[in-house]
Amino acid sequence: MSTLEPLKTMAEPWDDRQTAAVRAFAPAVATPIVPSGSIAGRSLTAVVAIMTFLAALTSGAVMLVAGAASDWQSEVGREVTIQVRPVSGRDIEADVRAAIAVARAAPGIADVRAYTSDESAKLIEPWLGSGLVLGDLPIPRMIVVKLVNGTVPDFPALRSTLAAQVPSASLDDHRGWIDRMRTMADTAVIGGLAILGLVLAVTVLSVTFATRGAMATNRVIIEVLHYVGATDGFVASQFQRHFLILGLRGGAIGGGAAIVLFGVLEATSAWLTGTAGGDEAAALFGSFSVGVSGYLVILSQVVLMAVVTAVASRHTVSRTLESIE
Questions:
Q1: With contact defined as beta carbons under 8 Å apart, do 107 and 153 qualify?
Q2: Under 8 Å between Cβ of 308 and 245
Q3: What digits encode the pLDDT tens for the residues 150-208?
Q4: How far apart, in whole angstroms, are the C-alpha atoms of residue 70 and residue 67?
Q5: Which residues pair with 143 in a beta bridge?
Q6: Cα separation, 103 vs 145, whole angstroms
Q7: Which end of the chain is more exposed for a tag (fewer CB within 10 A), N or C?
Q8: What angle do CA 131, 127, 121 make, to 5 degrees?
Q9: For residue 238, what are the domain limits?
Q10: What total of structural domains would you count in the chain?
């Protein structure tokens, strides 16, 4: 038998005295359908905070990787290199001078600089070690060619001229490295979007289970509200407001923790600037600052998590109420 059967057996409608009596004993402040300080509510707040923190970390990491890859592409794309190999029967110094002349004569070239023998030898020290006698090794000579900003020289023509005048020289425009860095950045973005999708899915499932639990706990109250004339939209709006507040609270905690973390990383990076470790980290990973746009993305994720929490709760309540006779 339904819990509302005793109420349904009341034959006489309420008169003014009964209404006044109910109002007299009613609390002055309206009590929400779902208690705000329940254990389930605190647990859901913690889940939303963790999910928001993970989403913010993922977004920040993707932005850092994409920014570093963009800086690398910009830096590598501003210059090309010419490699002059030592060949038996040819004067490598003459070949270097000829290659420099060919490069300077090409349009779109801003500057040409040839590495000395000692500088070329130092380029391979990280792999062979220092203190070795490298004079007997056929170490090629490197020529760095800087390009004019905004221009793309005719590399095929430059290659043809080098091949005709300096057979031992080869041109590398670093397009392979640029393509690899672009692929790496695109992969990082796709992976980040996939992780964000998983985070949202976990959040929706958590909110769904929490909403069903809250409705099961307050089923009698919901039935009473239905009996006195409350619509499904009113009941759903009460749950939506409750879970929206939980989502905002959890999102603010998780997003705030992520903002603090990125702020600490940015301050640490600035403090280490000029040191050997700091310069190496900056060369490999770029700046650890996500910038204003990164912090705005984190704030938008806080709002997004709250909206997702509220919408998932309302959808669950509406579907559940439809099944209640």
A1: yes
A2: no
A3: 777 788 888 888 888 888 888 887 777 777 878 888 888 898 889 988 988 888 888 88
A4: 5
A5: 82, 114
A6: 7
A7: C
A8: 55
A9: 5-10+33-73+179-323
A10: 2
